Amino acid sequence: MPLLANDAVTQDAYQAEVQKIRARFEHSHDGHAAIVERSNLMDSLLGELWDQFGGGASGLHRIGVAALGGYGRRALFPRSDVDVLFLHESALGQDSQNRIAKLCQALWDLHLRVSPTTRSLAECGKLHRDNLEFNISLLDCRFVCGDAQLFDQLRARVIPRMVARDALELQQRLIDLTSARHEKYGHTIFHLEPNLKDGPGGLRDYQVACWLNLIAQLEKAGSWPAADKLVPDALRKECGAALDFLSAVRCFLHYRQGRDLNGLTYELQSEAAAAGIGLPDSAAVAPAAWMRTFFRHVRSIYRLTVLFDEVPPVRSGLYRLFDHRRSRLSNADFSVVEGRVFLRQLSSVQDPSTLLGLFEFVGRHGLKLTAETERCVEAALPHLRRWLESSPDVWVQFRRILVAPHAGAALRAMHRLGVLVLLFPEFQAVDSLVIRDYYHRYTVDEHSLVAIESVHALRTPDTELERRFRDILDGVETPDLLFLALLFHDVGKGLPAEDHVAGSLQAAAAILDRLRLEPGDRETVIFLIAQHLRMSSTIMRHDIFDPKVVAEFSEAVGTMERLRLLTLLTYADVKSVNPEALTPWKAEMIWQLYAAAFNHLSRTVDDERLTLAASNSERIRQAVAAAGDPDSKHIVSFLEGFPKRYLLTHTPAEVVGHCRMYDRLKSGDDEPQIEIARRDGYFELVLLTLDCPGLFSHVIGTLASWGMNILKAEAFSNKAGVVLDTIRFSDRFHTLELNPSEEGRLKRQLSEAVSGEISVIDLMETRFKPAVQGAKVKIEPNVQIDNNCTQHSTMVEIIAQDRPGLLYDISSTLAELGCNIEVAIIDTQGQTATDVFHVTCAGAKLDPAHQKNLRAALLEQL
Amino acid sequence: MTKLEAIIQPSKLEAVKDVLTELGVEGMTISDVRGHGRQKGHTEVYRGREYSVDLLPKVKLELVLPDNLVDPVVDAIVKTASTGKIGDGKIFLSRIDEVIRIRNQERGVAAL
User: β-pairing, B49-53 with B42-46?
Assistant: First the structure.
């Protein structure tokens, strides 16, 4: 195949060869072959031109012609620049310069984009700080024609010396350039129209990883490593596949556009998918499926960027100080150096508990794993798989990862290394799954992880609106359930279900079974996934200022805890569609609906009672069925008259437990029934007794006199005049923890206080010793009294600075002024106490004079 | 040609979009906006704090229509976006001198 006819390069001959390469690519879609063939063609062309222009003629200076960059790697894409080095030993004479100029002119006449560089050996050995790209391009140099000995000197001596001397600076500059490039693409591989060369996870990243490894090995051994040893063994296979895929796609883009354009536009995605570019047998697939393959390959290459962190940093003293501080995080299993986690024993992660502990550690401190740690994790996956076969309790550790402040980073690392899919095979359905529209920026798996990060980011709010959502998050009792729901709310998008919510619910049911969640927690997660579109659709399709819309929405949500969770889930779900999706307008709408529903739930609780009427009988029947008690009559008589909220905030098991307490109350001369249970970080008191004046304040006062801090409380009464108080408190002085026998004494004292055998006023005077504590945030006291919320009671809402004894002061004031508490909902968020009471006086609402006196008395106490 | 700007309730957007598509309206610009007319706003109390909602959320549609479509489109929006309550929004109409499609410099109704 002579390219030169009669000593003249003919464009036709060259173009004919170019067309043959293209034809072979269009038949085979083998990008790797196409770029090697073009490189070989260029070698032939250069060699023939070199001979034609007398490059080897005697009397000329010694000149070696070398290929650089992609051409040097034999990866010359159809429209890429051709980087050529004319290497000489000493200053070039005019004749030599003329011959090089003629050669380049001939190449340009062929419409090749040639970037020629003429350098002496000595110049190649220097570090060009203003043109570091040249030093980097030398790393790919390859002899083409001319003086081979000169080239051998370059490769055997000059480059290794330059690298040995300036390795750190070369590496650091490479990383800085990469970081700046990633910054331009928002540090994410997920773009609607990605750039497959320069985008994160693109071909450039693959090359940077190879260069860093090459520099490290050249510096260490002084000799050139084999080209196929530049990628870690563990990643070689998948990165090789990714490289082949991206090479095919880049060839397709160059041929299709006739230019060195590497942006994968929507139109080109469709064409590539239809042609099956990069796929086995070039099978045509849907664009979304093709993009899914694309993102999986890109993610493989993006994994190589972990190597970038292995380079010792040249950083400021302040940064080093910060990193040093983080190194104190090291513990018995993991050591932390420069913000990266090393395993003290490489095999330690074969213990699944340590493996999950590693990700909890990452999530808690926001650290990265070293490449070696990642390899150990991957090697440990078979052990994790075997462990999972024994149905272990994964939830205990997984929930700790979810609630860790850097959970997003931990989960992303778990996903990248295959741990997440091993724990939850259902998540595979959305792995790299693309939603191909102009609205969704991220793949479905990434969307779920970004959503979790969006909630965690609320801990450090930037705007007033974010602060409002942060306040909602502060009040959430079960953030782990929120994060679990966020992780799986969209898995149905990758499943063959009639709609994605149904698919997600199906997948979640299996996951929750395996995690063995408590029934109430399970129900909450299912609720969140089932309703995850409800708030958005209410906002967009209904008038949220219409009380009927608010009432209907609140009824569907049921409890304040679920309202908080659903609000945050909606916030995060919208925010993680794309960076601009949650406009201040939408965020404000979500918050408005939340606030309206919150007010509705707290103000109507007294009206929404369980009765035997048709509207409620279904709820009661469900409770009776769940209780599994053959004698349903007494359960019904126990439930009748309680607010609907009671059934929503208690599990069937708890309802049965309360009912048994009710039985004991009836059979034990109306002796108050008291149970105290230790929960996760607090105690829960359940008191069931007949109603009497001042009951709530007696109970609260007794607890306060023991130094207990009330966190939350509910007080409900049923039709039979039985009161159920559920009170969560923290044991400030660890009295019950250190003296288990004191629990019995506390119960006795509560019983005596309820029955009036002891004076709570005396108890408070003698025993109550509040801790002196300054207020971090000043909360202005506020008392709202509303006679229109419910049909037969007056609502009293009190907002105040929380302090020991506050609830006793409020409840005793209510008692002193003759107010009977029908319902109480006590809540504390940070230093703000929010207490809502529905009260009556002699069975009726408070009259205006009574309201005035009550407000004045309460404000005096606050 | 006439430019139509309609301020409507967010909850009516989907229905209005559907009816405009049925009428053959091919393009529109939609923005999330806040504002008030005579409806003014109100004050929301949440956990003891007052939040003033003086600018209410609305959606703004902008369309440029050939003259023969103006009346049907106005009628359709009025019929679809109306709840009969205060705060349903407004429609503004103004004359347009010229329209130019940037891609190929087409002008007039053909560029709509």
Answer: antiparallel
